[in-house]
Design brief:
- The chain has about 475 residues and is mainly alpha-helical.
- Among the domains are: about 90 residues; about 90 residues, no CATH class; about 40 residues; about 55 residues, Herpes Virus-1.
- About 55% of the residues lie in helices and about 5% in strands.
- The protein is built from 18 helices and 9 strands.
- The strands form 4 sheets. The chain has a 3-stranded antiparallel beta sheet with strand order 6-5-9.
- The chain is elongated and about 115 Å long.
Length: about 475
């Protein structure tokens, strides 16, 4: 996915043999692009930490239960036979825990090996294997994009064909359930974890999403630090519009201090995803006209959120006073089907933040990097050439938030040969005003006895009627 620099028209063609090693410029570009690979290492590391924490909690819970039972047996007045029987039961529990921990230890080792394999992969590119490594990297980026866009079958097939999966124990394609023992370069198991929740939300089921929130409750609360940083960035952008730089810095520091103090004094700035799920479940009870059930549900599950989301809860609670779906737009919005789509998008955002993933697919980031150098006002005009990537609506949408590229010198591409017109291949102007390269027009004149035919308007003229144009 690298682009060679365009010739400037001053170099001469030589017959020297290309060196076998990659030029230093390409290695420099690779080093710069590796700065975007933090997700490649962060995701398996976060998954590794999650597994360790879950195993630790399971051991602490089981051991605590066994110790408590032993203390109870010691304080109770039971016969020797009963004591032996109960202690034997506890030994069986501990043996079962040992077997389970041995299985989990193998899982931890595989995840640690995955982290090591990815570090080795990022350290492996050099001048000799740069092309092969870049091709594998492109396939990784494509697999990641497919999994993010829910193209699971296609992403898995590409990963298999590219040897990105080291061992697949078994695959049930009909049920879309994959148990993958070790994946060196892709995170299919992580995305399949998200797929279960996404499919449930698309089927208007809340339970799997709530179970996911309960499983990651402590980690979701820690996302408050990211929210503080985002709010600080937004505040800085707003303050930066002030005309007086001195006032900017002072105002920003004051607002920054207020935000941090408010964050420490608030209720944790935790993720709103669970709250939104609870609201949706409440709305479904109101939709079913189970008003008493909705009120009981609100008292049990929504009351703890009252201090943080007072306004939203007031609006939602008002829906119980209507008979059927309200006509008022403020309350009717809670009953629209798009609320489920909003929950899906919110889950994707929380899921990416939880595992340290980029909010945007890496493929989009690389495409935007290239499109930023191609975007000009002409790209959005109706007569934009089809050779321009920005003539396609999908690329235009991707480039919409990007600034226009700064072109110090005009670059003109010949309509006929698709080659760049420069000092060695200057543009020539036909009597009708259309411009083509000298190379293309000379070849046309040789084939047609000095006659030139415009490929756009079919105008026929002599080669001597052409006027040389100069690029400024």
């Amino acid at each position: 996915m690298e682009m060679d620099s365009l010739p400037n028209g001053n170099s001469t063609t030589t017959s020297t043999t290309a060196p076998s090693t990659a030029p230093p410029s390409k290695l420099t570009q690779l080093t710069e692009s590796l700065k975007l690979e933090h997700q490649f290492l962060r995701v398996p590391f976060e998954h590794y930490k999650k597994t360790i924490r879950a195993n630790l909690r399971a051991v602490e819970k089981e051991v605590s239960s066994v110790i408590s039972a032993v203390n109870d047996y010691a304080d109770s007045d039971i016969s020797n036979d009963d004591a032996v029987q109960r202690l034997t039961s506890l030994v069986s529990r501990l043996q079962g825990l040992k077997r389970k921990m041995e299985e989990e230890r193998r899982t931890e080792n595989l995840q640690a090996e995955r982290c090591r394999a990815r570090i080795d992969h990022l350290e492996s590119p050099d001048a000799e294997n740069l092309t092969g490594w870049a091709n594998m990297r492109l396939k990784r980026i494509l697999v990641d994009y497919m999994l993010r866009m829910s193209y699971y079958d296609t992403g898995l097939k590409l990963a298999e064909s590219s040897n990105m999966l080291s061992d697949i124990t078994f695959l049930l394609r009909a049920l879309m359930i994959w148990q993958i023992e070790c994946q060196d370069l892709v995170d299919i198991d992580i995305y399949l974890e998200a797929k279960k929740v996404i499919d449930a939300l698309q089927n208007m089921e809340i339970a799997p999403a709530l179970a996911w929130c309960a499983e990651n409750k402590s980690r979701l609360k820690k996302l408050k630090h990211t929210q503080i940083k985002l709010l600080l960035a937004e505040t800085f952008a707003t303050v930066a519009s002030n005309s007086d730089p001195g006032v900017n810095i002072l105002e920003f520091n004051l607002v920054k201090h207020a935000i941090i103090v408010n964050a420490h004094c608030s209720y944790g700035w935790q993720s709103k995803f669970e709250f939104q799920l609870r609201l949706q479940e409440y709305i479904e009870l109101v939709r079913a006209e189970n008003h008493m059930g909705a009120i009981a549900y609100a008292r049990k599950y929504l009351a703890p959120w009252a201090a943080m989301h007072t306004k939203e809860m007031q609006q939602v609670f008002a829906t119980v006073a209507f008979k059927g779906i309200p006509e008022c737009s403020v309350y009717k919005a809670f009953f629209e089907p798009k609320q489920w789509d909003y929950l899906v998008e919110q889950f994707k955002q929380e899921f990416c933040r939880l595992y340290g993933m980029n909010p945007e697919p890496l493929l989009n980031i690389f495409l935007q990097a290239g499109l930023s150098s191609l975007k000009t006002p002409y790209c959005y005009e109706d007569d934009c050439t089809r050779e321009d990537p920005l003539s396609q609506e999908s690329f235009r949408k991707l480039a919409f938030p990007l600034p226009y590229s700064k072109q110090h010198h005009s670059k003109i591409v010949c309509y006929i040969t698709k080659e760049l017109m420069d000092a060695e291949n200057p543009p020539q102007v036909l009597p009708n005003g259309y411009v083509y390269s000298t190379k293309a027009l000379e070849e046309m004149a040789k084939r047609n006895d000095g006659k030139i035919t415009c490929p756009r308007t079919s105008l026929v003229c002599n080669y001597s009627e052409l006027v040389k144009a100069y690029i400024s």
